[in-house]
Amino acid sequence: xxxxxxxxxxxxxxxxxxxxxxxxxxxxxxxxLLEVKLDYERLAVEWSREELSSDxxxxxxxxxxxxxxxxxxxxxxxxxxxTSLYHAPGLAKELGLENLIIKNEGLNPTGSLKDxxxxxxxxxxxxAGRHAVACSSTGNAATSLAGNAASLDEDMEAVIFVPERVPxxxxxxxxIYGAVVVSVQDNYEKAYNLSAESxxxxxxxxxxxxxxxxLVEGKKTCVLEMAEQLDFEMPDWLVFSVGDGCTIAGAWKxxxxxxxxGFIDKTPRLLGVQAEGCAPITRSFRTxxxxxxxxEDTIADSIxxxxxxxxxxxLMAVKNSGGTMVNVTDEEIMEMMxxxxxxxxxxxxxxxxxxxxxxRREAAxxxxxxxxxxxxxxxxxxxxxxxxxxxxxxxxxxxxxxxxELRQIFEQRGIIKEDE
Length: 420
Fold this sequence. Notes:
Layout: E1 4-9, E2 15-16, E3 34-38, H1 40-46, H2 49-53, E4 85-87, H3 89-94, E5 99-104, H4 115-127, E6 132-136, H5 140-150, E7 157-163, H6 168-176, E8 180-184, H7 188-202, E9 205-206, H8 213-219, H9 221-229, E10 237-241, H10 246-260, E11 269-275, H11 280-287, H12 311-321, E12 324-328, H13 330-344, H14 350-364, E13 373-378, H15 386-392, H16 403-413
Parallel strand pairs: 5-13, 6-7, 6-9, 7-8, 10-11, 10-13, 11-12
Antiparallel strand pairs: 1-2, 1-3, 4-5
Helix pairs in contact: 4-5, 4-8, 5-6, 8-10, 9-10, 10-12, 13-14, 13-15
């Protein structure tokens, strides 16, 4: 918290002290999102790229000066961050591009980028004196919270509210981590409402990233880390799947932080991608009209948020970057799961690859140039949603234990030639 100065409402500009349980602006009700403000002038003088490079920690906490937590508060023991960055020339060629890099956030401890936000959440819960932290989630925020809470030396209970459609892999994670899991027999919006009511009634710390300003600060470490991995030479475009808007908002906050303290010279444009069956933010971006609540009709459960509460920050991020937004179908998402896997060996869940499907569409339509440098973030691991992965992939070959039968099938499929 050394460089945190205040919290500011993005609507009315009202200023608040950076208390751990300050979530929203009192004057703007549930629309008054707050932003963590940093002392950039002091940061630029007291912290440098050279100091960062000498930090021995291989996790997100190496960016401590930009993360709003107190230095002495215990951290979760899970090693969040330091995820791999890949150059993908083969996949780039398939998409009609020349330069594509992929950051695989599915390598985080519980399998998604949201570990970064949850790590901050359990630290802030301790700073607030709370021994229970709660959230509603379509899966990844929930599993990341449960895992990070379980890894603390301190006693911290995670209370999770999920809609009935949560994939089995994510539900299994929650139960293994020992969380209190409440399966709400309805959609995400109803799960969110019940979690909010419960948090107010029983005084738990609120991990819901849509309203907690500190969690965007955790998510931004993905792009802080990417920048360091690229030696602070930022790409032309950053591509993200978009659900409630927190992740892409965090990406832009990272770019702003880095630019303000002199670590980077240019900021990339943002491409935000939603599923056609649940795309309220894209609609607002394109029409300029207020957000309208939509259905949640997509296989990409992690971005199926019909009433996103962080949409204003997402819209500001995309617009301020000079970027754009696009929607993709579930069919395009499933196709991209197999294309990503077969060309790179990376297994992404539906929401994790939706951004890549959007990139292909924008490249095909000429909105993104062939020679642009592109960075795409796979936000979640495909093992979290095996059912949809099986739907996307081809079936295995079924044979009896007979080499001649196998040879005939191989020849029919073109796997071998007759003279082999």
